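Let's practice the habit of predicting before peeking. Look at the sequence and jot down your guess about where helices and strands might fall. Then scroll down.
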Amino acid sequence: MTRGLEISVGQHSDKGRKPINQDFHGVLIPDEPQLSLKGIAAVLADGISSSTVSQIASESAVKSFLMDYYCTSEAWTVKTSARRVLDATNSWLHAQTRKSQYAYDRDKGYVCTLTAMVIKGTTAHIFHVGDCRIYRVSGKALEQLTDDHRIIVSSEQTYLGRALGINPQLEIDYQSLEVEAGDIFFLATDGAYEFVDARFVTGALNEHAAELDGAAKAIVEEAYRRGSDDNITVQILRIDAVPQREPIGIFNQASELPLPPLPEPRAIFDGYRIVREVHASSRSHIYLAVDTETEEPVALKLPSIDLRDNRAYLKRFLMEEWIARRIDSPHVLKPLSQSRRRGYLYVATEFVEGQTLRQWMTDNPRPDLETVRGLVEQIAAGLRAFHRMEMLHQDLRPDNILIDKTGTAKIIDFGSVRVAGVAEAAPQGDGEILGTVQYTAPEYFLGEGGSPRSDMFSLAVICYQMLTGKLPYGAQVAKIRRKSDVRRLQYRPADDDRNVPQWVDGALRRALHPDPYKRHEDLSEFVFELRTPNPAYLNTRITPLLERSPLLFWKLTSAFLACAVVALLALLHAR
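Done guessing? Here is the structure:
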Protein backbone atom coordinates (compact mmCIF):
# COMPACT_ATOMS: atom_id res chain seq x y z
CA MET A 1 0.00 0.00 0.00
CA THR A 2 1.31 3.45 -0.94
CA ARG A 3 2.07 5.56 2.12
CA GLY A 4 1.57 9.29 2.18
CA LEU A 5 3.11 11.92 4.39
CA GLU A 6 2.99 10.96 8.08
CA ILE A 7 4.32 12.94 11.04
CA SER A 8 4.24 12.82 14.83
CA VAL A 9 3.72 16.04 16.77
CA GLY A 10 4.56 17.19 20.29
CA GLN A 11 3.60 20.62 21.66
CA HIS A 12 3.58 22.43 24.98
CA SER A 13 3.28 26.07 26.03
CA ASP A 14 3.38 27.82 29.40
CA LYS A 15 3.14 31.45 30.50
CA GLY A 16 6.17 30.92 32.72
CA ARG A 17 6.82 33.83 35.04
CA LYS A 18 4.71 36.24 32.94
CA PRO A 19 1.15 37.16 34.00
CA ILE A 20 -0.31 35.99 30.65
CA ASN A 21 0.84 33.76 27.82
CA GLN A 22 1.38 35.83 24.66
CA ASP A 23 2.67 32.83 22.66
CA PHE A 24 0.37 30.92 20.36
CA HIS A 25 0.99 27.77 18.33
CA GLY A 26 -0.80 25.17 16.23
CA VAL A 27 -0.43 22.28 13.79
CA LEU A 28 -2.94 21.21 11.15
CA ILE A 29 -2.83 17.81 9.46
CA PRO A 30 -5.55 17.73 6.76
CA ASP A 31 -7.17 14.74 5.10
CA GLU A 32 -6.62 13.83 1.47
CA PRO A 33 -6.58 15.33 -1.08
CA GLN A 34 -5.35 18.43 0.77
CA LEU A 35 -2.65 16.42 2.53
CA SER A 36 -1.01 15.77 -0.84
CA LEU A 37 -1.82 19.12 -2.43
CA LYS A 38 -1.26 21.50 0.51
CA GLY A 39 0.77 19.54 3.06
CA ILE A 40 0.98 19.80 6.87
CA ALA A 41 1.35 23.21 8.52
CA ALA A 42 2.92 24.05 11.88
CA VAL A 43 2.94 27.65 13.14
CA LEU A 44 4.48 29.36 16.17
CA ALA A 45 3.96 33.03 17.11
CA ASP A 46 5.38 35.07 19.99
CA GLY A 47 3.85 38.34 21.16
CA ILE A 48 6.12 41.20 22.23
CA SER A 49 6.31 41.89 25.97
CA SER A 50 5.95 45.68 25.63
CA SER A 51 2.43 45.33 24.18
CA THR A 52 -0.70 44.44 26.11
CA VAL A 53 -2.49 43.31 22.94
CA SER A 54 0.21 41.26 21.24
CA GLN A 55 -1.36 38.01 22.45
CA ILE A 56 -4.28 38.92 20.15
CA ALA A 57 -1.79 39.40 17.31
CA SER A 58 -0.09 36.04 17.86
CA GLU A 59 -3.39 34.16 18.17
CA SER A 60 -4.79 35.85 15.05
CA ALA A 61 -1.63 35.17 13.07
CA VAL A 62 -1.58 31.45 13.86
CA LYS A 63 -5.30 30.91 13.35
CA SER A 64 -5.42 32.86 10.09
CA PHE A 65 -2.46 30.96 8.69
CA LEU A 66 -3.88 27.54 9.55
CA MET A 67 -7.32 28.41 8.18
CA ASP A 68 -6.56 30.64 5.21
CA TYR A 69 -3.59 28.70 3.84
CA TYR A 70 -5.85 25.72 3.18
CA CYS A 71 -8.38 27.99 1.45
CA THR A 72 -5.87 29.10 -1.19
CA SER A 73 -5.83 27.41 -4.58
CA GLU A 74 -4.34 23.92 -4.76
CA ALA A 75 -2.75 25.06 -8.02
CA TRP A 76 -0.51 27.54 -6.20
CA THR A 77 2.87 26.65 -4.76
CA VAL A 78 3.35 26.63 -1.00
CA LYS A 79 5.42 29.81 -1.26
CA THR A 80 2.74 31.71 -3.15
CA SER A 81 -0.09 30.52 -0.90
CA ALA A 82 1.73 31.25 2.35
CA ARG A 83 2.99 34.64 1.22
CA ARG A 84 -0.53 35.72 0.22
CA VAL A 85 -1.87 34.71 3.64
CA LEU A 86 0.97 36.30 5.59
CA ASP A 87 0.78 39.55 3.61
CA ALA A 88 -2.95 39.76 4.36
CA THR A 89 -2.39 39.02 8.06
CA ASN A 90 0.36 41.62 8.28
CA SER A 91 -1.87 44.25 6.67
CA TRP A 92 -4.71 43.47 9.07
CA LEU A 93 -2.49 43.63 12.17
CA HIS A 94 -0.90 46.90 11.01
CA ALA A 95 -4.35 48.37 10.35
CA GLN A 96 -5.53 47.35 13.82
CA THR A 97 -2.59 49.20 15.36
CA ARG A 98 -3.25 52.29 13.23
CA LYS A 99 -6.87 52.34 14.41
CA SER A 100 -5.95 51.88 18.06
CA GLN A 101 -4.61 54.27 20.70
CA TYR A 102 -1.13 52.92 19.88
CA ALA A 103 -1.12 54.25 16.32
CA TYR A 104 2.27 55.92 16.76
CA ASP A 105 3.88 53.45 19.15
CA ARG A 106 4.74 50.20 17.37
CA ASP A 107 6.07 48.63 20.56
CA LYS A 108 2.57 48.62 22.03
CA GLY A 109 0.59 47.64 18.95
CA TYR A 110 -0.69 44.42 17.40
CA VAL A 111 2.74 42.94 16.74
CA CYS A 112 4.17 39.43 16.97
CA THR A 113 6.91 37.25 15.57
CA LEU A 114 5.98 34.21 13.47
CA THR A 115 7.67 31.06 12.25
CA ALA A 116 5.80 28.57 10.09
CA MET A 117 6.75 25.27 8.52
CA VAL A 118 4.73 23.61 5.76
CA ILE A 119 5.75 20.05 4.90
CA LYS A 120 4.47 19.05 1.46
CA GLY A 121 5.58 15.93 -0.33
CA THR A 122 9.27 15.52 0.45
CA THR A 123 9.93 19.22 1.01
CA ALA A 124 9.72 21.45 4.09
CA HIS A 125 8.96 25.12 3.43
CA ILE A 126 9.97 27.58 6.17
CA PHE A 127 8.57 31.11 6.60
CA HIS A 128 10.13 33.23 9.31
CA VAL A 129 9.97 36.75 10.70
CA GLY A 130 11.19 37.67 14.16
CA ASP A 131 13.12 35.65 16.74
CA CYS A 132 11.34 32.33 17.11
CA ARG A 133 13.57 29.53 15.87
CA ILE A 134 13.43 26.26 13.97
CA TYR A 135 16.15 23.67 14.53
CA ARG A 136 16.77 20.38 12.78
CA VAL A 137 17.90 17.68 15.20
CA SER A 138 21.14 16.06 14.06
CA GLY A 139 22.34 13.38 16.46
CA LYS A 140 23.01 15.16 19.74
CA ALA A 141 23.25 18.57 18.09
CA LEU A 142 20.73 21.16 16.87
CA GLU A 143 21.15 22.82 13.47
CA GLN A 144 19.53 26.28 13.52
CA LEU A 145 17.60 26.87 10.29
CA THR A 146 16.36 30.42 10.91
CA ASP A 147 18.07 33.75 11.59
CA ASP A 148 16.95 36.03 14.41
CA HIS A 149 15.67 39.40 13.23
CA ARG A 150 16.89 41.11 16.36
CA ILE A 151 18.99 44.27 16.44
CA ILE A 152 21.65 44.31 19.17
CA VAL A 153 22.24 47.76 20.64
CA SER A 154 24.36 46.67 23.59
CA SER A 155 24.89 43.63 25.79
CA GLU A 156 21.77 44.63 27.70
CA GLN A 157 19.57 46.14 25.00
CA THR A 158 18.12 44.56 21.84
CA TYR A 159 14.99 45.09 19.79
CA LEU A 160 13.13 43.37 16.97
CA GLY A 161 14.13 44.45 13.50
CA ARG A 162 11.26 42.64 11.80
CA ALA A 163 7.89 41.28 12.92
CA LEU A 164 4.30 40.87 11.80
CA GLY A 165 2.27 44.06 12.04
CA ILE A 166 5.16 46.54 12.46
CA ASN A 167 5.15 47.88 8.90
CA PRO A 168 2.53 47.94 6.13
CA GLN A 169 4.82 45.77 3.95
CA LEU A 170 6.12 42.45 5.19
CA GLU A 171 9.67 41.24 4.64
CA ILE A 172 9.80 37.56 5.48
CA ASP A 173 12.51 34.91 5.13
CA TYR A 174 11.74 31.83 3.05
CA GLN A 175 13.68 28.64 2.48
CA SER A 176 12.93 25.07 1.44
CA LEU A 177 14.73 21.82 2.19
CA GLU A 178 14.28 18.15 1.45
CA VAL A 179 13.06 15.92 4.28
CA GLU A 180 13.38 12.21 4.92
CA ALA A 181 11.70 9.75 7.24
CA GLY A 182 13.24 10.10 10.70
CA ASP A 183 13.95 13.84 10.46
CA ILE A 184 13.03 15.80 13.60
CA PHE A 185 12.37 19.56 13.73
CA PHE A 186 12.34 21.59 16.94
CA LEU A 187 10.45 24.93 17.02
CA ALA A 188 10.80 27.20 20.04
CA THR A 189 10.30 30.74 21.33
CA ASP A 190 13.17 32.65 22.95
CA GLY A 191 11.82 31.74 26.38
CA ALA A 192 12.82 28.15 25.64
CA TYR A 193 15.91 28.12 23.43
CA GLU A 194 17.79 30.75 25.45
CA PHE A 195 17.66 28.57 28.58
CA VAL A 196 17.79 24.94 27.38
CA ASP A 197 20.82 23.53 25.61
CA ALA A 198 20.99 21.02 22.74
CA ARG A 199 22.08 18.20 25.01
CA PHE A 200 18.95 18.42 27.14
CA VAL A 201 16.67 18.76 24.07
CA THR A 202 18.06 15.68 22.33
CA GLY A 203 18.01 13.75 25.62
CA ALA A 204 14.34 14.61 26.12
CA LEU A 205 13.56 13.53 22.56
CA ASN A 206 15.21 10.15 23.11
CA GLU A 207 13.55 9.64 26.49
CA HIS A 208 10.07 10.53 25.20
CA ALA A 209 10.40 9.17 21.64
CA ALA A 210 7.03 7.41 21.86
CA GLU A 211 5.19 10.45 23.23
CA LEU A 212 6.47 13.76 21.85
CA ASP A 213 4.08 15.86 23.95
CA GLY A 214 6.02 14.55 26.95
CA ALA A 215 9.30 15.68 25.39
CA ALA A 216 7.89 19.16 24.70
CA LYS A 217 6.60 19.45 28.28
CA ALA A 218 9.92 18.31 29.75
CA ILE A 219 11.82 20.93 27.73
CA VAL A 220 9.41 23.70 28.79
CA GLU A 221 9.68 22.71 32.44
CA GLU A 222 13.47 22.59 32.26
CA ALA A 223 13.58 26.09 30.74
CA TYR A 224 11.44 27.36 33.60
CA ARG A 225 13.65 25.59 36.16
CA ARG A 226 16.74 27.22 34.64
CA GLY A 227 15.30 30.70 35.15
CA SER A 228 13.38 31.56 31.96
CA ASP A 229 11.59 34.86 32.52
CA ASP A 230 9.42 34.75 29.38
CA ASN A 231 6.57 32.68 27.95
CA ILE A 232 7.86 29.24 26.95
CA THR A 233 6.58 27.34 23.90
CA VAL A 234 7.97 24.28 22.13
CA GLN A 235 6.82 22.32 19.08
CA ILE A 236 8.37 19.06 17.88
CA LEU A 237 7.72 17.56 14.43
CA ARG A 238 9.02 14.10 13.51
CA ILE A 239 8.73 12.82 9.93
CA ASP A 240 7.53 9.22 10.14
CA ALA A 241 6.97 8.62 6.41
CA VAL A 242 7.33 10.62 3.22
CA PRO A 243 5.19 10.05 0.13
CA GLN A 244 6.40 8.38 -3.00
CA ARG A 245 6.88 10.44 -6.15
CA GLU A 246 3.24 10.03 -7.14
CA PRO A 247 0.91 12.05 -4.85
CA ILE A 248 -1.93 9.98 -3.42
CA GLY A 249 -5.50 10.98 -2.93
CA ILE A 250 -5.64 13.67 -5.63
CA PHE A 251 -7.54 11.91 -8.38
CA ASN A 252 -8.49 8.64 -6.68
CA GLN A 253 -12.20 8.71 -7.47
CA ALA A 254 -11.79 9.56 -11.13
CA SER A 255 -8.85 7.19 -11.62
CA GLU A 256 -10.98 4.25 -10.50
CA LEU A 257 -13.48 4.78 -13.34
CA PRO A 258 -13.31 2.33 -16.25
CA LEU A 259 -12.09 3.53 -19.63
CA PRO A 260 -15.06 4.10 -21.97
CA PRO A 261 -15.78 2.44 -25.30
CA LEU A 262 -16.06 4.70 -28.34
CA PRO A 263 -19.82 5.39 -28.69
CA GLU A 264 -21.80 5.36 -31.92
CA PRO A 265 -24.08 8.22 -33.04
CA ARG A 266 -27.56 8.17 -31.34
CA ALA A 267 -26.22 5.91 -28.59
CA ILE A 268 -26.94 6.80 -24.95
CA PHE A 269 -23.64 7.26 -23.13
CA ASP A 270 -23.74 7.91 -19.37
CA GLY A 271 -26.85 10.09 -19.64
CA TYR A 272 -25.81 11.80 -22.88
CA ARG A 273 -27.17 11.14 -26.36
CA ILE A 274 -24.31 11.04 -28.86
CA VAL A 275 -24.87 13.21 -31.93
CA ARG A 276 -21.62 12.80 -33.84
CA GLU A 277 -17.86 12.66 -33.53
CA VAL A 278 -16.40 16.15 -33.80
CA HIS A 279 -12.69 15.43 -33.68
CA ALA A 280 -10.41 12.41 -33.42
CA SER A 281 -6.65 12.32 -33.00
CA SER A 282 -3.95 10.19 -31.41
CA ARG A 283 -4.55 12.09 -28.15
CA SER A 284 -8.34 12.11 -27.72
CA HIS A 285 -11.80 11.59 -29.21
CA ILE A 286 -14.33 14.43 -28.96
CA TYR A 287 -18.07 14.00 -29.47
CA LEU A 288 -21.02 16.36 -29.68
CA ALA A 289 -23.74 15.06 -27.38
CA VAL A 290 -26.98 16.21 -25.78
CA ASP A 291 -27.73 15.91 -22.08
CA THR A 292 -30.86 13.74 -21.89
CA GLU A 293 -32.09 15.63 -18.81
CA THR A 294 -31.58 19.24 -19.91
CA GLU A 295 -31.37 18.82 -23.72
CA GLU A 296 -28.31 21.09 -23.64
CA PRO A 297 -25.50 20.40 -26.13
CA VAL A 298 -22.21 19.30 -24.57
CA ALA A 299 -18.79 18.20 -25.73
CA LEU A 300 -17.48 14.87 -24.42
CA LYS A 301 -13.75 14.21 -24.49
CA LEU A 302 -12.73 10.55 -24.24
CA PRO A 303 -9.21 9.16 -23.78
CA SER A 304 -7.34 8.05 -26.86
CA ILE A 305 -7.68 4.36 -27.73
CA ASP A 306 -3.97 4.23 -28.62
CA LEU A 307 -2.69 5.64 -25.31
CA ARG A 308 -4.86 3.87 -22.75
CA ASP A 309 -1.92 1.86 -21.46
CA ASN A 310 0.19 5.00 -21.02
CA ARG A 311 0.07 5.94 -17.34
CA ALA A 312 1.56 9.41 -17.87
CA TYR A 313 -1.03 10.19 -20.55
CA LEU A 314 -3.94 9.04 -18.35
CA LYS A 315 -2.66 11.18 -15.49
CA ARG A 316 -2.62 14.24 -17.76
CA PHE A 317 -6.10 13.37 -18.99
CA LEU A 318 -7.36 13.22 -15.39
CA MET A 319 -5.74 16.58 -14.76
CA GLU A 320 -7.67 18.33 -17.55
CA GLU A 321 -10.99 18.60 -15.74
CA TRP A 322 -9.26 19.37 -12.44
CA ILE A 323 -7.48 22.28 -14.13
CA ALA A 324 -10.56 23.54 -15.97
CA ARG A 325 -12.55 23.76 -12.73
CA ARG A 326 -9.96 26.13 -11.29
CA ILE A 327 -9.92 28.55 -14.23
CA ASP A 328 -12.64 31.16 -14.58
CA SER A 329 -12.36 33.08 -17.84
CA PRO A 330 -14.66 33.65 -20.83
CA HIS A 331 -11.65 32.81 -22.99
CA VAL A 332 -11.01 29.35 -21.51
CA LEU A 333 -13.20 26.31 -22.20
CA LYS A 334 -15.60 25.76 -19.30
CA PRO A 335 -16.25 22.29 -17.77
CA LEU A 336 -19.77 21.21 -16.92
CA SER A 337 -20.91 20.50 -13.39
CA GLN A 338 -22.35 17.00 -13.24
CA SER A 339 -24.90 15.85 -10.68
CA ARG A 340 -25.04 12.29 -12.02
CA ARG A 341 -22.52 9.69 -10.98
CA ARG A 342 -20.17 8.94 -13.83
CA GLY A 343 -19.71 5.41 -15.07
CA TYR A 344 -16.66 6.06 -17.27
CA LEU A 345 -13.57 8.20 -17.47
CA TYR A 346 -14.21 11.24 -19.69
CA VAL A 347 -14.46 15.05 -19.55
CA ALA A 348 -17.70 16.95 -20.21
CA THR A 349 -17.41 20.61 -21.27
CA GLU A 350 -19.50 23.32 -22.85
CA PHE A 351 -19.98 22.88 -26.59
CA VAL A 352 -18.54 25.78 -28.59
CA GLU A 353 -20.11 26.12 -32.01
CA GLY A 354 -17.41 27.53 -34.23
CA GLN A 355 -14.05 26.60 -35.71
CA THR A 356 -10.46 26.23 -34.66
CA LEU A 357 -8.11 29.13 -35.18
CA ARG A 358 -6.24 26.90 -37.64
CA GLN A 359 -9.35 26.68 -39.84
CA TRP A 360 -10.05 30.37 -39.33
CA MET A 361 -6.55 31.20 -40.60
CA THR A 362 -7.16 29.05 -43.66
CA ASP A 363 -10.46 30.85 -44.32
CA ASN A 364 -8.90 34.28 -43.64
CA PRO A 365 -5.41 34.20 -45.19
CA ARG A 366 -5.01 38.01 -45.13
CA PRO A 367 -6.75 39.30 -41.98
CA ASP A 368 -6.50 42.98 -41.13
CA LEU A 369 -4.30 44.07 -38.25
CA GLU A 370 -7.21 45.09 -36.00
CA THR A 371 -8.85 41.66 -36.26
CA VAL A 372 -5.56 39.96 -35.39
CA ARG A 373 -5.03 42.27 -32.43
CA GLY A 374 -8.52 41.54 -31.13
CA LEU A 375 -7.96 37.78 -31.22
CA VAL A 376 -4.51 38.07 -29.62
CA GLU A 377 -5.96 40.17 -26.78
CA GLN A 378 -8.62 37.54 -26.09
CA ILE A 379 -6.12 34.68 -26.11
CA ALA A 380 -3.81 36.69 -23.83
CA ALA A 381 -6.71 37.19 -21.40
CA GLY A 382 -7.21 33.42 -21.29
CA LEU A 383 -3.49 32.82 -20.74
CA ARG A 384 -3.43 35.34 -17.89
CA ALA A 385 -6.18 33.33 -16.17
CA PHE A 386 -3.81 30.33 -16.24
CA HIS A 387 -0.84 32.35 -15.05
CA ARG A 388 -2.76 33.81 -12.11
CA MET A 389 -3.23 30.24 -10.90
CA GLU A 390 0.47 29.45 -11.44
CA MET A 391 -0.29 27.29 -14.46
CA LEU A 392 1.48 27.18 -17.83
CA HIS A 393 -0.50 26.02 -20.87
CA GLN A 394 2.63 24.79 -22.71
CA ASP A 395 0.77 23.76 -25.89
CA LEU A 396 -0.74 26.95 -27.25
CA ARG A 397 -1.29 26.54 -31.00
CA PRO A 398 -4.04 27.35 -33.53
CA ASP A 399 -5.59 23.87 -33.14
CA ASN A 400 -6.08 24.49 -29.39
CA ILE A 401 -8.00 27.74 -29.83
CA LEU A 402 -11.67 27.85 -30.81
CA ILE A 403 -13.39 30.85 -32.40
CA ASP A 404 -17.17 30.82 -31.88
CA LYS A 405 -19.81 32.49 -34.04
CA THR A 406 -19.53 35.74 -32.08
CA GLY A 407 -15.78 35.94 -32.69
CA THR A 408 -14.88 34.98 -29.13
CA ALA A 409 -11.64 33.04 -28.75
CA LYS A 410 -11.43 30.20 -26.21
CA ILE A 411 -8.36 28.20 -25.20
CA ILE A 412 -8.99 24.45 -25.11
CA ASP A 413 -7.04 21.25 -24.40
CA PHE A 414 -5.31 21.30 -21.02
CA GLY A 415 -3.42 18.03 -21.40
CA SER A 416 -0.01 19.73 -21.38
CA VAL A 417 -0.70 22.28 -18.64
CA ARG A 418 1.88 22.46 -15.87
CA VAL A 419 0.39 23.20 -12.44
CA ALA A 420 3.03 24.54 -10.06
CA GLY A 421 1.28 23.30 -6.92
CA VAL A 422 0.85 19.76 -8.25
CA ALA A 423 4.36 19.65 -9.70
CA GLU A 424 5.64 20.67 -6.27
CA ALA A 425 3.86 17.69 -4.69
CA ALA A 426 5.25 15.28 -7.29
CA PRO A 427 8.36 16.77 -8.95
CA GLN A 428 8.92 15.62 -12.52
CA GLY A 429 11.77 16.22 -14.91
CA ASP A 430 11.50 19.00 -17.46
CA GLY A 431 12.92 16.92 -20.29
CA GLU A 432 9.64 16.00 -21.98
CA ILE A 433 8.36 18.51 -24.53
CA LEU A 434 4.55 18.34 -24.46
CA GLY A 435 3.79 21.16 -26.90
CA THR A 436 3.87 21.30 -30.70
CA VAL A 437 7.43 22.08 -31.79
CA GLN A 438 6.59 24.92 -34.22
CA TYR A 439 5.01 26.91 -31.37
CA THR A 440 7.25 25.81 -28.49
CA ALA A 441 9.69 28.28 -26.92
CA PRO A 442 13.43 27.51 -27.39
CA GLU A 443 14.08 27.09 -23.65
CA TYR A 444 12.03 23.87 -23.61
CA PHE A 445 14.38 22.27 -26.13
CA LEU A 446 17.29 23.07 -23.84
CA GLY A 447 15.61 21.34 -20.91
CA GLU A 448 15.32 24.58 -18.95
CA GLY A 449 11.58 24.38 -18.31
CA GLY A 450 9.05 27.10 -19.01
CA SER A 451 7.63 30.30 -17.59
CA PRO A 452 4.77 32.66 -18.50
CA ARG A 453 7.14 34.13 -21.08
CA SER A 454 7.20 30.73 -22.79
CA ASP A 455 3.43 30.91 -23.30
CA MET A 456 3.95 34.47 -24.56
CA PHE A 457 6.39 33.13 -27.16
CA SER A 458 3.75 30.68 -28.41
CA LEU A 459 1.13 33.46 -28.61
CA ALA A 460 3.57 35.67 -30.52
CA VAL A 461 4.20 32.85 -33.02
CA ILE A 462 0.44 32.60 -33.59
CA CYS A 463 0.15 36.37 -34.00
CA TYR A 464 3.07 36.40 -36.46
CA GLN A 465 1.53 33.53 -38.42
CA MET A 466 -1.86 35.24 -38.66
CA LEU A 467 -0.19 38.39 -40.06
CA THR A 468 2.29 36.77 -42.46
CA GLY A 469 1.11 33.21 -43.08
CA LYS A 470 4.58 32.00 -42.04
CA LEU A 471 6.53 31.03 -38.93
CA PRO A 472 9.07 33.55 -37.54
CA TYR A 473 11.93 31.04 -37.47
CA GLY A 474 10.64 28.53 -39.99
CA ALA A 475 11.58 25.01 -38.89
CA GLN A 476 14.76 26.14 -37.09
CA VAL A 477 13.32 26.00 -33.55
CA ALA A 478 12.56 22.28 -33.77
CA LYS A 479 16.25 21.60 -34.47
CA ILE A 480 17.53 23.18 -31.26
CA ARG A 481 19.67 20.87 -29.15
CA ARG A 482 22.33 23.20 -27.73
CA LYS A 483 22.61 26.88 -26.82
CA SER A 484 24.72 27.42 -29.92
CA ASP A 485 21.67 26.39 -31.98
CA VAL A 486 19.64 29.11 -30.26
CA ARG A 487 22.22 31.75 -31.12
CA ARG A 488 21.97 30.76 -34.79
CA LEU A 489 18.21 31.38 -34.97
CA GLN A 490 17.40 33.97 -37.63
CA TYR A 491 14.21 35.99 -37.15
CA ARG A 492 12.35 36.81 -40.35
CA PRO A 493 10.98 40.37 -40.11
CA ALA A 494 7.19 40.40 -40.30
CA ASP A 495 7.17 43.65 -42.31
CA ASP A 496 9.17 42.20 -45.21
CA ASP A 497 6.31 40.97 -47.42
CA ARG A 498 3.11 42.44 -45.96
CA ASN A 499 1.78 45.72 -44.68
CA VAL A 500 2.82 45.11 -41.07
CA PRO A 501 3.93 48.35 -39.37
CA GLN A 502 7.54 48.47 -38.30
CA TRP A 503 6.62 49.01 -34.64
CA VAL A 504 4.32 45.95 -34.68
CA ASP A 505 7.19 43.91 -36.07
CA GLY A 506 9.34 45.31 -33.25
CA ALA A 507 6.85 44.11 -30.64
CA LEU A 508 6.75 40.67 -32.27
CA ARG A 509 10.54 40.50 -32.55
CA ARG A 510 10.87 41.18 -28.81
CA ALA A 511 8.16 38.67 -27.77
CA LEU A 512 9.83 36.07 -30.02
CA HIS A 513 13.35 36.60 -28.74
CA PRO A 514 15.13 33.25 -28.19
CA ASP A 515 16.22 34.43 -24.72
CA PRO A 516 13.14 34.47 -22.45
CA TYR A 517 14.68 37.23 -20.29
CA LYS A 518 14.77 39.57 -23.30
CA ARG A 519 11.06 39.18 -24.03
CA HIS A 520 8.33 41.36 -22.54
CA GLU A 521 7.99 40.97 -18.79
CA ASP A 522 4.24 40.37 -19.01
CA LEU A 523 1.58 39.51 -21.57
CA SER A 524 -0.12 42.86 -20.95
CA GLU A 525 3.05 44.65 -22.09
CA PHE A 526 3.13 42.64 -25.33
CA VAL A 527 -0.56 43.31 -26.02
CA PHE A 528 -0.07 47.02 -25.28
CA GLU A 529 2.80 47.27 -27.76
CA LEU A 530 0.65 45.70 -30.48
CA ARG A 531 -1.63 48.75 -30.20
CA THR A 532 0.74 51.52 -29.14
CA PRO A 533 3.86 52.34 -31.15
CA ASN A 534 7.03 51.98 -29.10
CA PRO A 535 9.53 54.67 -30.19
CA ALA A 536 12.33 52.15 -29.75
CA TYR A 537 10.97 50.19 -32.72
CA LEU A 538 10.65 53.22 -35.02
CA ASN A 539 14.36 53.55 -35.77
CA THR A 540 14.64 53.80 -39.53
CA ARG A 541 18.40 53.16 -39.57
CA ILE A 542 19.25 50.26 -41.85
CA THR A 543 20.83 47.52 -39.75
CA PRO A 544 24.24 46.55 -41.15
CA LEU A 545 24.49 43.08 -42.63
CA LEU A 546 27.18 42.25 -40.07
CA GLU A 547 24.60 42.74 -37.28
CA ARG A 548 21.70 41.11 -39.09
CA SER A 549 23.59 38.03 -40.31
CA PRO A 550 27.25 37.73 -39.31
CA LEU A 551 27.61 34.36 -41.04
CA LEU A 552 26.33 35.70 -44.36
CA PHE A 553 28.55 38.78 -44.01
CA TRP A 554 31.70 36.73 -43.61
CA LYS A 555 30.69 34.35 -46.40
CA LEU A 556 30.24 37.29 -48.79
CA THR A 557 33.47 38.87 -47.57
CA SER A 558 35.37 35.62 -48.17
CA ALA A 559 33.84 35.27 -51.63
CA PHE A 560 34.78 38.86 -52.50
CA LEU A 561 38.35 38.34 -51.33
CA ALA A 562 38.58 35.09 -53.30
CA CYS A 563 37.40 36.87 -56.44
CA ALA A 564 39.92 39.65 -55.84
CA VAL A 565 42.74 37.12 -55.50
CA VAL A 566 41.70 35.36 -58.72
CA ALA A 567 41.54 38.70 -60.53
CA LEU A 568 45.01 39.72 -59.33
CA LEU A 569 46.47 36.35 -60.33
CA ALA A 570 44.90 36.69 -63.78
CA LEU A 571 46.34 40.19 -64.10
CA LEU A 572 49.84 39.02 -63.14
CA HIS A 573 49.62 36.10 -65.54
CA ALA A 574 48.61 38.44 -68.37
CA ARG A 575 51.78 40.48 -67.82
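How did you do? The longest strand covers residues 232-241.
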